[in-house]
């Protein structure tokens, strides 16, 4: 018997969504998820997302397997897709959500709250950024220090980087032209640099004006993607820490824009953007070789 799924994308960052609410463990193994994500021999996606039963006073639990089989702590674009997916499941069962509708989602990065908005966008309370070296984690600074505008040698060049965790690790560097960055060359070297014991996501940011930034991203476990929600949040935080941008800005990614706000009052980061349903189908857990 096949497993039903829906395909979604958040600004081109695409995912396979599986209704997993009736059991606590994902219906696919990480190895099977790799097969499903293969763009030539499988369905094709940056990751597989499972909607599991809630825990610790949450409505649902979110788990993800990346296209390489690794499991990230959180995914900003993915959780917007998950919220849209859950709204669709509830509607199909006769309980369409009244908008705006907030969901409390348990993730390995903590409790995250996406809200379905009447205009179709989803706003996600991404929580507080973690800025200490031990929280990211990175060896670029003392454990209790922030890593802001620090030198990191990659591919024989010293890059000025700022590190931020949004429940997962990010290394941000500001450049004059994101289009000129050889991301396929540099991305793996940043991700696997010894300074990041749990590897890292890497964002290259071009400041066009204080409220408008351009961004390209290499995601840990997925490679080049068209968008990264946690990366956009981390990039705005890094921009503020370096005095390069406002606390509210549009982050223009290859797949489209996200609006990010870092509150000076609450220290919490909010992300607003779309999630797009693509299609639904079913497939066997073990795809034919």
CATH fold title of the largest domain: Diaminopimelate Epimerase, Chain A, domain 1
What is the CATH C level class of the largest domain, in words? Alpha Beta
* Main structural class: alpha+beta
Largest sheet: 18 strands, mixed
Mean pLDDT: 97
End-to-end distance = 17 Å
Specify the number of helices: 4
What letter string, H or E per element, gives the SSE order?
EEHEEHEEEEEEEHEEEHEEEE
**How many domains would you count in the coordinates?**
2
Shape: globular
CATH architecture of the largest domain: Roll
Number of strands: 18
What does this structure look like?
The protein contains four helices and 18 strands. With 289 residues, it is an alpha+beta fold. The chain has an 18-stranded mixed sheet that branches. The protein folds into two domains: 132 residues, Diaminopimelate Epimerase, Chain A, domain 1 (Roll), CATH 3.10.310.10; 135 residues, Diaminopimelate Epimerase, Chain A, domain 1, CATH 3.10.310.10.
């Amino acid at each position: 018997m096949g497993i039903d799924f829906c395909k979604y994308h958040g600004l081109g960052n695409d995912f396979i969504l599986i209704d997993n609410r009736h059991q606590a463990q994902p219906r696919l193994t990480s190895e099977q998820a790799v097969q499903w994500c293969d763009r030539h021999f499988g369905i094709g996606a940056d990751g597989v997302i499972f909607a599991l039963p809630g825990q610790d006073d949450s409505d649902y639990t979110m788990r993800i397997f990346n296209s390489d089989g690794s499991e990230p702590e959180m995914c900003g674009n993915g959780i917007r897709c998950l919220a849209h997916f859950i709204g669709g499941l509830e509607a199909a069962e006769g309980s369409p959500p009244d908008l705006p509708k907030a969901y409390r989602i348990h993730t390995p990065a903590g409790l995250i709250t996406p809200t379905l908005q009447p205009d179709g966008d989803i706003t996600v309370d991404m929580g507080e950024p973690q800025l200490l070296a031990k929280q990211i984690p990175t060896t670029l600074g003392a454990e209790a220090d922030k890593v802001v505008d620090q030198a990191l040698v990659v591919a024989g060049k010293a890059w000025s980087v700022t590190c931020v965790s949004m429940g997962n690790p990010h290394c941000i560097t500001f450049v004059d032209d994101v289009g000129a960055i050889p991301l396929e060359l540099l991305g793996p070297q940043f991700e696997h640099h010894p300074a990041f014991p749990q590897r890292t996501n890497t964002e290259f940011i071009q400041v066009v004006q204080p409220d408008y930034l351009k961004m390209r991203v290499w995601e840990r476990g997925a490679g080049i993607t068209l968008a990264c929600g946690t990366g956009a949040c981390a990039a705005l935080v890094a921009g503020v820490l370096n005095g390069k941008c406002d606390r509210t800005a549009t982050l223009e990614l290859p797949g489209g824009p996200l609006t990010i706000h870092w509150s000076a009052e609450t220290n919490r980061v909010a992300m607003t953007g779309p999630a797009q349903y693509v299609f639904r189908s079913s497939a066997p857990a073990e795809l034919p070789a």
